[in-house]
UniProtKB/TrEMBL annotation:
[4Fe-4S] cluster binds at residues 195, 279, 377. It catalyses: isopentenyl diphosphate + 2 oxidized [2Fe-2S]-[ferredoxin] + H2O = (2E)-4-hydroxy-3-methylbut-2-enyl diphosphate + 2 reduced [2Fe-2S]-[ferredoxin] + 2 H(+); dimethylallyl diphosphate + 2 oxidized [2Fe-2S]-[ferredoxin] + H2O = (2E)-4-hydroxy-3-methylbut-2-enyl diphosphate + 2 reduced [2Fe-2S]-[ferredoxin] + 2 H(+). Dimethylallyl diphosphate binds at residues 224, 257, 307, 405-407, 449. Its cofactor is [4Fe-4S] cluster. The active site is at residue 309. GO terms for molecular function: 4 iron, 4 sulfur cluster binding; 4-hydroxy-3-methylbut-2-enyl diphosphate reductase activity; metal ion binding. (2E)-4-hydroxy-3-methylbut-2-enyl diphosphate binds at residues 224, 257, 307, 347, 405-407, 449. Keywords: 4Fe-4S, Iron, Iron-sulfur, Isoprene biosynthesis, Metal-binding, Oxidoreductase. Residues 24-152 form the Nucleoside phosphorylase domain. This is 4-hydroxy-3-methylbut-2-enyl diphosphate reductase. SUPFAM superfamilies: Purine and uridine phosphorylases. Its EC number is 1.17.7.4. NCBIfam families: ispH_lytB, PRK01045.1-4.
């Protein structure tokens, strides 16, 4: 499959031509576009050129990447649009994602408003006739005429130059898209995505909103995922950093990562109605710290000091908990009474790395008390083992999860320790097209705080680059559930 870049105008061809894919001048308007499409060989193609904006937010020089192309023969979906849009944004360009509609003539202002009411963002006279149905296909239009600034306008020249500059800057992304086109195998690691603690935390916020109405306040992110947070914000959740930002007497939800006793006291002092969404497995670690320190032991907390879960756990006994972040720290840490020590772990660590740290501590402190059961969350362990089972069978691993998700970052590290490059992506728009070039087998998983639909969307985006076969490797079935707090029942 050799991708072709189709440019209606020669000046557009000059703007995008470079060392990348072959460019073809297809001609202006539907008749010439249809004739060119009949001559072109079957296979992947990108339409790149200037176009008209339909909505006020689409300005001259902006790019519109088509999620679908609407024309007289119907609608052609463009599943790879988020991938291409991400590559263009990475070049510093302003990009809008949405439908592009085909027109047989230059659109006037009244018609522009009518097309915008259908949800379309841009209009052109070629893409619908050049659309390669059933083949990898993409459309990038640099906006020249816009709402209030039609083609016959004093600003036409400057707007046209802005559009051509954006097209020229877009050329590397077009090349990356072309080089990423190929058939693929996607191997899904299972279990992946939401765990029982995350599902519980999200349901708690949803139920609190149903019971109390908006706004319901949440201290910090309920779970570390931007998509989850945005969806709950749309429903009326208000996320705050500290208790002091919550109006007195309001409803406050503690996030799944847990809080210190000092935070609980602050909430009580403000008369807040508190709903605790702390994951029960995090609560277990808090209980261990209280038990160990209650009998006079210093606790080594294996984890990352900046993580919210660790902050809350340390708060149980600030003078008696020492955070140990890596093997080097474990080899040098000192305490006042080496004979009276214990250890616990942050629940979202990589199991092998945490065990290596614990092993050093056990060697240095023979009397070290240990948790009755592993502190690392079952879901974290399962996802790491599931990924490890497939990592060596693929060329690249994509881990769906937000950048502040500890368990998602650990999955990247697991893959890299297995010798397979990995990338953490918040969603399909974050997948770097350059990584996909030459990657015929892709492993796909998601952190415990990432919604399942993001995995589905990533697979569909990859399908826009060529045929994709999907196989699922299930290591174990998860049946864990946690009860909800009485405050939301």
């Amino acid at each position: 499959m050799t991708p072709i870049v189709c440019t209606p105008l020669r000046i557009e061809q000059a703007a995008v031509r470079g060392p990348g894919p072959r460019t073809v001048h297809t001609g202006l308007g539907p008749r010439r576009a249809a004739a060119a499409a009949a001559r072109l060989p079957s296979g992947p193609r990108i339409v790149a050129g200037v176009g008209g904006g339909l909505t006020p937010e689409v300005r001259p020089g902006d790019l519109v990447v088509a999620t679908e192309v609407r024309g007289p023969s119907g609608v052609v979906p463009v599943p790879s649009a988020p991938l291409l849009a991400g590559a263009l944004r990475g070049l510093g360009l302003t990009v809008h994602l949405g439908p592009v509609v085909g027109s047989s003539h230059v659109v006037r202002e009244r018609e522009r408003a009518s097309l915008a009411s259908s949800g379309a963002l841009a209009v052109d006279m070629e893409s619908a006739w050049l659309a390669a149905s059933g083949e990898p296909f993409a459309v990038v239009r640099a906006i020249v005429d816009t709402v209030g600034e039609p083609l016959l306008h004093p600003s036409t020249v400057s707007n046209g130059l802005a559009g051509l500059r954006s097209l020229r800057r877009a050329a590397p992304a077009l090349t990356a898209w072309a080089e990423a086109v190929r058939p693929r195998m996607v191997l899904l690691a299972s279990p992946r995505s939401f765990c029982a603690g995350v599902e519980r935390a999200i349901e708690i916020v949803e139920r609190a909103l149903e019971k109390h109405g908006a706004p319901v306040y949440v201290r910090r992110q309920i779970v570390h995922n931007t998509h989850v947070v945005h969806r709950l914000q749309e429903r009326g959740a208000v996320f705050v950093d500290e208790v002091e930002e919550v109006p007195e007497g309001a409803t406050l939800v503690f996030a799944a990562h847990g809080v210190s006793p000092a935070v609980r006291r602050a909430a009580a002092d403000r008369g807040l109605s508190v709903v605790d969404a702390t994951c029960p497995l995090v609560t277990k670690v808090h209980n261990e710290v209280r038990r160990y320190t209650g009998r006079g032991e210093t606790v080594f907390l294996i984890g990352h000091a900046e993580h919210e879960e660790v902050e809350g756990t340390v708060g149980e006994a600030p003078d008696d908990v020492v955070v140990v972040g890596d093997v080097a720290a474990a080899r040098t840490v000192t305490v006042r009474d080496p004979a009276r020590t214990a250890y616990t772990m942050q629940t979202t660590l990589a199991l092998d790395e945490a065990e290596e740290i614990a092993s050093v501590l056990r060697e240095r402190f023979p009397g070290l008390s240990a948790p009755r059961k592993d502190d690392i969350c079952y879901a974290t362990t399962n996802r790491q083992q599931a990924l490890r089972a497939i990592a060596r069978e693929v060329d690249l691993v994509l881990v769906v999860g937000s950048g502040n998700s500890s368990n998602s970052r650990r999955l990247v590290e697991v893959s890299e320790r297995e010798g397979t490059p990995a990338a953490l992506v918040d969603g399909c728009a974050d997948v770097d097209l350059r990584l996909l070039a030459g990657a015929g087998r892709i492993g796909l998983t998601a952190g415990a705080s990432a919604p399942p639909h993001l995995v589905t969307e990533t697979v569909e985006a990859l399908r826009g680059l060529g045929p994709v076969s999907v196989a699922e490797n299930t290591l174990t079935e998860e049946e864990m559930t946690f009860t909800l707090p009485r405050e939301v029942l």
